[in-house]
Amino acid sequence: MHLWPESVLAAAGPRTEEKAPVEDGIIKLTDVWDPTLTVSRPPAAADTGAAVIVCPGGGYSILAWDLEGTEVVAWLNSIGVTGVLLKYRVPEKRDLAFQDGQRAVSLVRSRAAEWKIDPRRIGILGFSAGGHLAVRVSTNFNRRSYRRVDAADDVSGRPDFAIPIYPAYLVREGEPSVADTAELPAGSDTPPMFMAIAADDEFAVGAMAYAQALKAAKAPFELHVFAFGSHGCGLRRGNANLLTWPEHCRRWLQGLGALAK
């Protein structure tokens, strides 16, 4: 489904034609003008009623559509969670992507009854730049970044939990160990957060700095720093240490009560 009426999109800039080249075995979607949500339900017998919005990474230049999108939705379905894949605007449209993320949470919650989703168990998951987007949406839910469009925007845009995986850009520019709490203001009302990253990832210091900011703000979180795994592996084989994060995350979700039918 489309996130916005065409009149809103036209006001943001000229239409571009999407491209989806395959490079290194990854679909790299770019030139996104018309952002969308794609909803995938788990089998009815396994459905927990929880939903997670998935934000692929790609440095705000591309979206790693399968690696950090469709393959992740399939994993969510396997644990009884509705996956909602967000196609947000790229390239170099960080603030428009933020609008897309905020709109996505409210839109999913506004459709909760229709989609048989529990409106109190809607999370957001992102990788790399998508992880930054997930954190930004989770820490700025009291400040709508765009003018009201319709009734969906009257519904809360606060995710009930957030799952940033090897998140990028969590620190101030030029200060790699100082959390960017101006753009990502952690507070006691920040949703519970699960973070996973590899120690050999260039963004590991930033993730640890942001975890300290969450701790100082008394915001609930769980941080896993794995010995190795590098950056950008999604759920694919080759980084066995970091790739244990899904089972840790499933356990964490169970602890939150997010997977209770």
Written overview of the protein:
There is one protein chain. The chain has a single domain, classed as Alpha/Beta hydrolase fold, catalytic domain (Rossmann fold, 3-Layer(aba) Sandwich), CATH 3.40.50.1820. Helices cover 30% and strands 18% of the residues. It contains seven helices and ten strands. The chain has helices at residues 6-12, 66-78, 94-110, 112-115, 129-139, 204-216, 245-256, and strands at residues 22-23, 26-29, 36-40, 51-55, 63-64, 82-87, 122-127, 161-165, 193-198, 221-226. A seven-stranded mixed beta sheet has the order 3-6-4-7-8-9-10, with helices on both faces. The radius of gyration is 17 Å and the shape is globular.
The count of helical stretches stands at 7
Given the helix and strand composition, which structural class is it?
Answer: alpha/beta
Q: Low-confidence runs (pLDDT<50, min 5 residues)?
A: none
Helix content: 25-40%
Major pleated sheet: 7 strands, mixed
Specify Rg, calculated over alpha carbons. 17 Å
CATH class: Alpha Beta
- Chain-averaged pLDDT: 96
SSE run:
HEEEEEHEHHEHEEHEH
Give the secondary structure arrangement, pairings included:
Layout: H1 6-12, E1 22-23, E2 26-29, E3 36-40, E4 51-55, E5 63-64, H2 66-78, E6 82-87, H3 94-110, H4 112-115, E7 122-127, H5 129-139, E8 161-165, E9 193-198, H6 204-216, E10 221-226, H7 245-256
Parallel strand pairs: 4-6, 4-7, 7-8, 8-9, 9-10
Antiparallel strand pairs: 1-2, 2-5, 3-6
Helix pairs in contact: 3-5
